[in-house]
Amino acid sequence: MTTSVTGPEAALSTAVPTPARPTPNIDTDRIAGLITQLLVELGEDPTRDGLLGTPGRVAAWWNDFLSPDSAATTTCFTESQLNGQLVIVSGMNVWSLCEHHMLPMSLQVTAGYIADGEVVGLSKFGRIAQHVAGRLQVQERFTRQVFAHLTDVIGREDVAVRVRGTHLCMSMRGVRMDAARTTTLQAGGRFETDPVLFQQFLTLAAAQ
Ligand SMILES: [Zn+2]
């Protein structure tokens, strides 16, 4: 199940392919050189005091951004007494970059799953969100990728992910609407087949 709600502008298409993994080690010297060229093209003097270190700092930031921690480690713990408990983790805020405008988007992530016989280490949720955010993205694909990582971790489709995004490409350019927020939802397994459970997730996600 995929649902996208955008106010006041319609959401972009959700039919997006899975992107290739970003290159973890970029050539920061070459990036710095390109930033210097960009500054010149923008009418700046890259040798003036305030800009001397800028190309190097921008290159270092790109390297950090494209090299998030791995989300690969498996952190599940056996909890044999648990049967069908709803677990929701919220308040996970990550920054990513909109691939259409290369401007930041702030993504608030809430994820839920059904714990059956084992629990997922809670920090795993944040690590997955950080990992998927560290590349050029669209919110819809980010939501689907967080969902896919979580279903891999728990080995079932009983996962729901809600993301609320603030996009600078909507607030500092284009329609310039500061208050616009985009909400995306992806749910599977029991969240898809049990409307009461899905409503519980939505209610708890909205309250947090
Ligand atoms: Zn954009």
Automatic annotation (TrEMBL):
Region entry Disordered, spans: 1-24
Domain named GTP cyclohydrolase I: residues: 34-204
InterPro entries recorded: GTP-CH-I_C/QueF, GTP-CH-I_N, GTP_CycHdrlase_I, GTP_CycHdrlase_I_dom
Keywords: Hydrolase, One-carbon metabolism
Enzyme Commission number: 3.5.4.16
Gene Ontology cellular-component terms listed: cytoplasm
Pathway(s) of this molecule: Cofactor biosynthesis; 7,8-dihydroneopterin triphosphate biosynthesis; 7,8-dihydroneopterin triphosphate from GTP: step 1/1
Gene3D superfamilies for the chain: 1.10.286.10, 3.30.1130.10
Keyword Protein transport assigned: no
GO molecular function, one term: zinc ion binding
UniProt keyword Hydrolase present: yes
Pfam families linked to this entry: GTP_cyclohydroI (PF01227)
Catalysed reaction, written as an equation: GTP + H2O = 7,8-dihydroneopterin 3'-triphosphate + formate + H(+)
Origin: domain of life: Bacteria
One Gene Ontology term from the biological process aspect of the record: tetrahydrofolate biosynthetic process
PANTHER family recorded: GTP CYCLOHYDROLASE 1 (PTHR11109:SF7), GTP CYCLOHYDROLASE I (PTHR11109)
UniProt name for this protein: GTP cyclohydrolase 1
Organism: Streptomyces paludis
